[in-house]
Amino acid sequence: MDTQSSAKLAEMTYEIGKTKVKKRIPNAIDNVNEHLENEGINYEVVPEWTDRNISTFRNKDDPSKIHISHKGTQFGSSTGSKDVISDLKIALGLGNYDTHVRRRKKRTERIINALNPDELTMSGHSLGGMSLNHTIGKSKKVREKLLQADTFNAGSSFAFNNDLKLSERAKKELKEIPITHHRTRNDIVSKGL
After folding, report:
1. CA 71/CA 95 separation, integer angstroms
2. Beta strand 54-59 with 65-70: parallel, antiparallel or unpaired?
3. Residue 33, class by beta-carbon neighbours within 10 Å (0-12 exposed, 13-18 middle, 19+ buried)?
4. At what angle do helices 80-91 and 127-138 cross, to 10 degrees?
5. What pLDDT does residue 100 have?
6. Which pLDDT tens digit goes with each residue over 168-177?
7. Burial class of residue 164 in the structure, from the number of CB atoms within 10 Å of its CB (0-12 exposed, 13-18 middle, 19+ buried)
8. 168: exposed, middle or buried (Cβ count in 10 Å: 0-12, 13-18, 19+)
């Protein structure tokens, strides 16, 4: 998947994430699908595996191609307070121990179990980039399926150690997967990277 499409799918998670009332998620999904079609991105939302934290997309021509995107911090959303608490933990170097981040990992694994993609790509912005990194680093199930991942200004702490404690096997597996960390110069959230 090209970087622009990956970034657009990460951006679209915010459209779904901003819904404060759960029953309005289908309207947000319709808006996202329309936007993706207008942008010429051949993916659509998988409603049953999309919530306010993680959006799942499938290729319209080949449903075995799946893209999972983790949402970043979104003030004013129903997840906003959890997002901010996670951000504070990231700033203190404790992001990998955050419940919100760990739940995203478990949900991602459930999505993979349910959809069993032939091709899996992933993306995330800010907090979503950090939770994506955690998920990839800590989940063998994800690494076994993952073809590519892009993070955009992934959350990190410039004051504390951000390293994931990875097994030697995980480190070896990660060398085989193209994971690109895109960072905007002077972005304070990702400064630790």
Report:
1. 15
2. antiparallel
3. middle
4. 70
5. 84
6. 888 888 888 8
7. middle
8. exposed
Cα–Cα distance, 55 to 57 (Å, whole number): 7
Supply the pTM of this predicted model. Answer: 0.89
At 56, which amino acid appears?
Answer: T
Output the CA torsion 174→97→154→63 (10° steps): 60
- Beta strand 179-182 with 43-45 is unpaired
> Residue 48 pLDDT > 60, yes or no?
yes
Instruction: State how far the alpha carbon of 45 is from the alpha carbons of 42, 124, 137, in Å.
Output: 11, 16, 25
CA atoms within 13 A on the CB side of 50: 32
Helix (H) or strand (E) holding 44: strand 43-45
Task: Write out pLDDT tens, residues 64-76.
Answer: 999 999 998 877 7
